[in-house]
Design goal:
The structure holds two protein chains of two kinds. By secondary structure, chain A is α/β, with parallel strands linked by helices. Chain A is built from eleven helices and 13 strands. Chain A has two domains: about 220 residues, 3-Layer(aba) Sandwich (Rossmann fold), CATH 3.40.50; about 60 residues, Alpha-Beta Plaits. Helix content of chain A is about 35%, strand content about 30%. Chain A has a six-stranded mixed beta sheet, sandwiched between helices. Chain B is globular and about 65 Å long. Classes of the chains: A alpha/beta, B mainly alpha. At the A-B interface, helix 2 and helix 3 of A face helix 1 and helix 5 of B.
């Protein structure tokens, strides 16, 4: 498969703080990638480095197999990072014309892209008069002007109202359905779960997981159990090889499965041991729970 | 190259404040011609500047480039804010993400400064030429086009000064503070450094040393022309004194300013390259 971006052993230090630590990954054409991580996990820094605005302390990255210099490659990329930055005294059209000049593409796509993000009727208003949602949509229009090979979005729904979030997600889905590669950084898990096919999980600048979202979710699930004989139950679970971590929350015991087992079998086993359950549920983890397990596990090791 | 100029032009021309300042600057340059209209008519004292021979070729080149040089401070506001605004609007970040390289970014600013200096020089040339043709006592071609090195000096002076402004804009990132820094730097050169060297090495060393400082070398390019003026000379002669001043422009003086220009542009680039945005 054609690789668009390769990041190799990237490290960025801000004084004593290591924002990105020895990070490597590859972005391939046609997939929708999510970079997940809590605030301050190095998502924006990583994107800043590959977008030429932050200097790496160590390591390297290359666009399109290194066939183009970074600034030439960026002309084929559409990117929105953090807040939308435009000239406040210029109108939407004037701002987009400037972007066209920088990207060396003709002006004729401006109307089309403004229509896509629903800003055509406000095209001659100054940028400073726009609401945050409109600014964000203008940023998307601007990123699409060159029909990019890859679209990079950093927290695109941050600070928007539900309606704005919905609009942005719809736009992203439309773009993804056209076959554009997307790299979406977010701390909103359901956002990534809904849109992305691949995910890279970061914590404190280190990569915890990288691969398909489906593979990550393909765990054996977990049981939620409740019984009056709590101690005996925990004792049984600890001795059984099929179970992993055991947690107690509000009297409910949550136990993670290490291998396949259905609720009926467990119930049978327990009943044979004389343990009677008052509550038994088998569930699959959502991405959110997966993510929290992953990030908190490594926290203990660290 | 044209693309880089166009980029900068879109940014400047759509900004109302910049547009007004640019137009005013060039209007003021043309207004130099109004000097000719200055007449004092107070009873017995009749004084008409145009009749005093100040617009004689080639002296007019010297006078007008000197006067116009004073207006550069006014234009410094435009230059400083065109750099500092990129930081305060964070548009510099967006420009780089959109695919402008850091080198191109600096080049687009420098080309703009270069173009403005060129246009300004052209304006001064035309205004002086017209003014001279009207009032000069000598209109032989060979006299008209002598001493044109003042125009070259004027151009280099603007280029150097504006490059300094660009550098300050990128260094300080806020237009108001950058302009403040410009004034502070002027004070540092003229008070701190001048007297420090004077204190340690004497007045001669001090005045030699001053020639190499950025702002001083720029203002030193075109020396004040007033004392060269016939009427002033004769007054001084009546008092039994003579001026022995070198009004010429020396090659090494131009070279010093060009060196500073190169240093400022390189430093701006180095700063931009090193900084995380």
């Amino acid at each position: 498969m054609e690789s668009i971006l390769t990041v190799t052993n990237l490290t960025k230090k801000f004084g004593f703080l290591t924002a990105v630590n020895d990070l490597s990954f590859t972005i391939e054409k046609g997939n929708v990638y999510g970079i997940l991580g809590p605030n301050g996990s190095g998502k924006s820094t990583t994107l800043g480095i590959v977008l030429n605005v932050v200097n790496p302390s160590n390591g390297s990255f290359s666009w399109f197999n290194g066939n183009l210099t970074t600034h030439q490659a960026l002309k084929k990329v559409g990117a929105i990072i953090e807040r939308p930055n435009f000239y406040p005294y210029m109108t939407a059209v004037q701002n987009l014309k400037l972007v066209c000049k920088i990207k060396e593409v003709p002006h004729d796509k401006i109307e089309e892209k403004l229509e896509l993000v629903g800003l055509l009727d406000r095209k001659n208003s100054k940028f400073s008069t726009y609401s945050l949602g409109m600014k964000q949509r203008l940023a998307i229009a601007s990123a699409l002007l060159n029909d990019p090979v890859i679209l990079i979005l950093d927290e695109p729904t941050n600070g928007l109202d539900p309606q704005g979030i919905h609009q942005i997600r719809e736009i992203i889905k439309t773009i993804a359905s056209q076959g554009t590669t997307i790299l979406l950084a977010s701390h909103l898990l359901d956002e990534v779960e809904k849109v992305c096919s691949h995910v890279i999980i970061l914590r404190k600048g280190e990569k915890l997981y990288s691969g398909r979202v489906d593979d990550m979710l393909a765990s054996y699930g977990f049981f939620e159990l409740k019984s009056e004989q709590t101690d005996a139950l925990i004792d049984f679970l600890e001795k059984h090889a099929s179970f992993g971590t055991i947690k107690q929350e509000n009297g409910v015991i949550k136990v993670i499965l290490k291998e396949e087992m259905d609720a009926k079998t467990l119930n049978q086993h327990l009943f044979e041991k004389g343990i009677v359950l008052s509550h038994l549920v088998k569930r699959k983890e959502s991405l959110e729970e997966q993510f929290l397990t992953l990030t908190s596990n490594t926290q203990k090791h660290a | 190259m044209l693309r880089l100029l166009q980029i900068e032009f879109i940014k400047l021309w759509n900004n109302r404040a910049s547009k007004i300042l640019i137009i005013s600057y060039f209007t003021l340059l043309v207004c130099m011609a109004l000097l000719a209209a200055i007449k004092f008519d107070i009873g017995p004292v009749k004084f008409h500047i145009a009749d005093q021979g100040v617009f004689n070729f080639p002296y007019i080149w010297h006078l007008n480039t000197w006067i116009a040089g004073g207006l550069k401070l006014f234009f410094a506001i435009v230059i400083v804010s065109m750099m500092a605004n990129e930081y305060s609007n964070k548009t510099i970040k967006q420009n780089l993400i959109d695919g402008l390289s850091k080198k191109e970014f600096i080049a687009s600013k420098f080309l703009t400064v270069f173009t403005f200096s060129l246009i300004s020089t052209l304006f001064v040339f035309l205004v002086s030429l017209v003014l001279g043709l009207f009032y000069s006592d000598y209109t032989e071609l060979s006299i008209i086009f002598s001493d044109l090195e003042y125009l070259l000096a004027y151009f280099v002076k603007l280029l150097g000064f504006f490059s300094f402004c660009l550098f300050l804009g990128i260094l300080v990132k806020r237009s108001a503070f950058a302009l403040g820094f410009l004034i502070v730097w002027y004070a540092i050169e003229n008070l701190a450094l001048r007297f420090l060297v004077w204190w340690f090495a004497g007045s001669e060393a001090s005045s030699t040393f001053m020639k190499y400082l950025p702002l001083e070398s720029m203002s030193n390019l075109i020396k004040e022309p007033v004392s060269r003026f016939n009427a002033v000379q004769s007054v001084v002669a009546q008092m039994g004194e003579t001026f022995n001043k070198d009004y010429n422009i020396h090659f090494y003086e131009i070279l010093i300013v060009l060196c500073w220009t190169a240093i400022f542009i390189y430093l701006s680039y180095a700063l931009l390259k090193r900084r995380d945005l």
